Amino acid sequence: MDTRYVILVLNGLTQGAIFFVLGSGLTLAFGLMRIVNMSHGAFYLLGGYLGLATFRLTGSWTVAVVAAGLSIALLGLLLERGMLARVREGGDLSQTLLTIALSMIIADVALAIWGGHSLSIRSPAAISMPVTIFGITYPGFRYVLMAISVLIALLLWLILYRTRFGIAVRASVDDREIVSALGVRIDTVYSLMFMLSAFLGGVAGVLGGTYLQLSPGEDTTILTYSLVVVIVGGLGSLMGAVVSSLILGQILSFSLAYAPQMSMFLVFVPMAIVLAVRPEGLFGRRV
Amino acid sequence: MISHDAIKKTFAPLVAAGIIATPAAAFAADGTVTIGMLSAFTGAFASFGQLQKEGAVLALEQRDYKVAGKTIKIIYADDQLDNELAVTKAKQLVEQDKVDVITGLVSGDEGLSVGAYMKDKNIPVVPMYSASEDSTMREWYSFIVRPTWTGAQPMDVFGYWLAKVKGLKKIYMIGEDYSYPYNQAGGFKRGFLRGGGVEVKTIWHAVPTSDYSSIIASIPLGGKYDAVLYNGAGSDAVAFVKQYVEFGMQNRIPLFGQSNTFEKPDLDSMPQEIVGAYSAHLTADDLNTPNWNKFRDAFKKRWNHSPSAASEFAYGSMELILRAIEARKGDVADKAALVAAMRSVDMSDEPRGPVKLDDYNAAIENVYIRQVALGSDGVMYNKGLFTAKNVSQFGPYDPKVYMKQPADGRTNPPDLRVEMPPEMLQVARDYEFVPFGK
């Protein structure tokens, strides 16, 4: 077999990895809170910039990842408590509109601070060396990226299926009134979930800022991809996010190799098919 | 449809009450000349938009916003690189702000859309960085004055140089899928195939693309092509070059760029493995002429960083506008006379090198072949190698022959020398290259 196909598959896995880290947070928050967080892309971009700033300050990539994740989680908490919770009575639309407004504000603030130029985070030398496995040489950092996303998937699974918080989340997805009546503080569950989602957005920003680049506009590009992940996978489904980001990654990788002009179009084809045939997504449940 | 008169009647009481000012009267009376600067200050081209603004502001500040006793009022309009929004904003500048000149325009498509809208408005349009050649060719009208460039202009020289002087035969070009890269590709193909090249294989990718690894993995190796040319700029270029180096491709096949690929400050975000990469533009970072040094020092003092081509073009374009207003002694009521004044402004002291305008109000100027080099301070820059002088937007071609060809596009001109129209492979006199700085 031509080694080129292996590289294309690996490229697809790398892209799938970043889509998963971003899309899983978005889909879980959606499943629970019934709002699409349109500022998720802005979280990604801001997380990346904060990671870059931390990296410049400390020189440690790991610290940058953690710091960006935590700061965006904190930002998420403040926004959820301070703003989203206040318009909850207004319904899904007002909340979604609010997140759109927030995304614009964050993007403009980032433009004012970091400017319009393209910036990127240097990947740590120890893990950025090309690695040769079975005669195929591939940048080591990309393997790390895949490993991180597998780790995140496992942790998310543990959180959802092995903790009290996870039980509350899954129960609330099915029927939040009953869960509320059972004495679970639903507002706390919401806040925690939104923080977790924001944390993943921030972490994805540093990962993306390291293997791709950070610049204005990247927030909307990446948001588009994560929305495709959410819609194809099924709203609120962790398994759906895994499968759909894998599919999306491979489509992007192979279309860029064989029909680069069509890549954007081809990404939306599965979304259109899923919406037509199975509107709830591959792993979603009818709501 | 509501007629103009109906609107006027509806708003007449408001106008009378002074709530809505009639701008034409308001501005003309107090000795103000209004310039609208329409550009992409946010969005994917925010970087170029910002660099452009810095150049324009420097020119204005050096004259304290005053020319021939008139105060220059500048209105910034941000189109976010959206062509429809650009037209809306242009409409606003024309109808509401009653601007005397429109300038700015950073991208190719933006320039074409605004140019089309402005066609019957009788207001001078001075595109700064927007480089689609048709603005000053097939879609040109006398109110467009572009003292800067077309996409093909430096690239025709670059292609010719690579084929004729460096002896390259086959290039693999990967480009962003829109009008400005088409024009850069067009110029490159004409120059390269005319200079003796055999093939320029062109691949287009959607904009934006973040991960280029699969495109890079598909580049044919093993001597099938002499070099790869990345025909993209800004964040796309940073990501592409970064990944090219990550895959160790620079050791297997050399990488060249279009005019903007290695422009600063994007170059600062690229890995140093690309030192040695060639490109061609109308500026070089180590230009060492009195005019350039004066401009560079003033620019650095004002903005704390070195100017790039986008800043220099904006500075020169704004100078052209201001000098024309000066020549008209501040009288901008007659727009055709203002354009005529722009045509006769002396731009021999332009920082990047002397500039003259051709019959289509497009620049005739120096093109520089450059190479990415590492400075003694450890920072990369574009070092000038050779200069081709007095290059027009038509390159070495007869304008009539050139304009007969279809506009540059995805598949125009063809990739292969054998498919190129014979009249585009033959010219009376081609470029001469002099060492940079001579």
Q: In total, how many domains does the architecture of chain B comprise?
A: 2
Question: How far from one another are the termini of chain B?
Answer: 62 Å
The largest interface is:
A-B, 42 and 39 residues
Strand order of the largest sheet of chain B: 2-3-1-4-5
Strand content of chain A: under 5%
Instruction: Give the strand content of chain B.
Output: 15-25%
Low-confidence stretches of chain A: none
Mean pLDDT of chain A: 90
How many domains of chain A? 1
SS summary, helix count of chain B: 13
Our measurement of the CA-to-CA distance between the termini of chain A, rounded to an integer number of angstroms, reads: 45 Å
Q: What is the CATH T-level topology of chain A? A: ABC transporter involved in vitamin B12 uptake, BtuC
Q: Percent range for helical residues of chain A?
A: over 70%
Under CATH at level 1, the class of chain A stands as Mainly Alpha
- Major sheet characteristics of chain A: 2 strands, antiparallel
Q: Would you report the number of β strands of chain B?
A: 14
Strand order of the largest sheet of chain A: 1-2
What structural category characterises the helix and strand content of chain B?
alpha/beta
The run of helices and strands of chain A is HHHHHEEHHHHHHH
Helix content of chain B: 25-40%
Radius of gyration of chain B: 22 Å
